[in-house]
Amino acid sequence: MKSILIFLVLFVLSLSGFSQKGKVLESLKCQSKLLGYPVEYSIYLPADYETSNRSYPVLYLLHGYSDDETGWVQFGEVAQIADKGIESGDFSSVIIVMPNGKVSWYCNDYKMANPWENMFVKEFIPSIEKTYRIRAKKEFRAISGLSMGGYGSLMLAMRNPDLFSSCVAFSSGTFTDEEIIAMPDNTYKMYFGDIFGSSLAGEKRISDSWKDHSPLHLIYDVPRDKLKSIRFYIDCGDDDFLFEGNTQLHIQMRKLDIPHEYRTRNGGHEWPYWRSGLVEGLKFISQSFHR
Fold it and tell me: Is pTM beyond 0.90 here?
């Protein structure tokens, strides 16, 4: 009888172990002297974070335009997806950090009035990696995002190639020069005026600031060996309005012999597409953390 009870206890404990969930902390704050305001962020900590002494790889996961640090948690179901993948062994046990990029496009604006990239590299990443048990090396650091965040992940990885081992961009807000030149004034000013200059029109929009941040220019400007040190994964739906820029990026990377994975699946610019894509994206990122 005693042995049966012990067996039942162990069986229940084993089941509860499999159902352990990670913890999400929302809207925490990281102080920034460069921006002059605190940057809010949410963070996913894997299930064993509080019971282990180990340090973890980290993924910086960026939201889309007009969203915030809660988007990937609320609509992207990142915690559920990560829990399931870690439990099944498909993903590495990873810390996921989701900062609020507001509508910055994750760039240093042309006036340097809101230098978001500088903040992210010089303040945010160091602060996060001191606060949490993170393996603070390139090989254990990844970046990803959707739409504006997909653009941000590509741009930040290319401009800071010594920081990230992999980059996964979903429905990246990567526009060709031709699309920017032809964009209606009100649309351009709304999305890009504060970042690259609101008074610019036509070909003048292809300014040095634009080129310095466009993935389609950075692949030519950043040393090839630096780009090849990052594993790139680009995913954009066949019905997405951003399909042209993503396709051009794939074509140009092929021509330049920059290794990358390119995916086009059925779908548009929408959360169901990104939720399903995150599963394969996390698998790809996890491969970068393995030896």
Answer: yes
What tokens were used for 186? 């009100």
Domain residue ranges of the chain, discontinuous segments joined by +: 23-289
Full pLDDT tens readout for the chain, 291 residues: 445 444 444 444 444 444 589 999 999 999 999 999 999 999 999 999 999 999 999 999 999 999 999 999 999 999 999 999 999 999 999 999 999 999 999 999 999 999 999 999 999 999 999 999 999 999 999 999 999 999 999 999 999 999 999 999 999 999 999 999 999 999 999 999 999 998 999 999 999 999 999 999 999 999 999 999 999 999 999 999 999 999 999 999 999 999 999 999 999 999 999 999 999 999 999 999 987
Can you tell me whether residue 174 is helix, strand or coil?
A: coil
User: In terms of DSSP bridges, do strands 23-30 and 58-62 run parallel, antiparallel, or are they unpaired?
Assistant: unpaired
> Pick from 262, 259, 257: which is nearest to 280 by CA?
262
Task: Provide the residue count of the chain.
Answer: 291
Q: Which CATH architecture has domain 23-289?
A: 3-Layer(aba) Sandwich (3.40)
| SS3 assignment, position 263 | strand
